[in-house]
Design a protein that fits this description.
Length: 99
């Protein structure tokens, strides 16, 4: 399994506390980049800037990625462009939420 796939598996274990869907399928992870030295850069967003887990959720994501043995360093950027909306959700997430 590639490191990026391992990262996605870990991220899928993290759920938005207000929505019963993991943050990957919710579409909150915009990009995952892994360089040859196993440094990871992640661009993620939240469902809204006023999200109650704005402090803890990015920290949880960063820690879960950093806990993967091969990962050397994690740089997580919280981004607001483009703004998150329901069209970014996976089909599985939409089915889970009956959308």
């Amino acid at each position: 399994m590639e490191l990026k796939e391992k990262i996605i598996v870990e991220i899928k274990k993290i759920y938005d506390p207000e929505i019963p869907v993991n943050i990957y399928d919710l579409g909150l992870i915009y990009d995952i980049r892994v360089d040859k030295s196993y440094n990871v850069e992640v661009d993620m967003t939240l469902t809204s800037p006023n999200c109650p887990v704005a402090e803890s959720l990015p920290a949880d994501v960063k820690k879960s990625i950093a806990d993967i043995d091969e990962v050397k360093n994690v740089d997580l950027k919280l981004v607001w462009a483009p703004p998150w909306n329901q069209t970014m959700m996976s089909e599985a997430a939409k089915l889970e939420l009956n959308l």
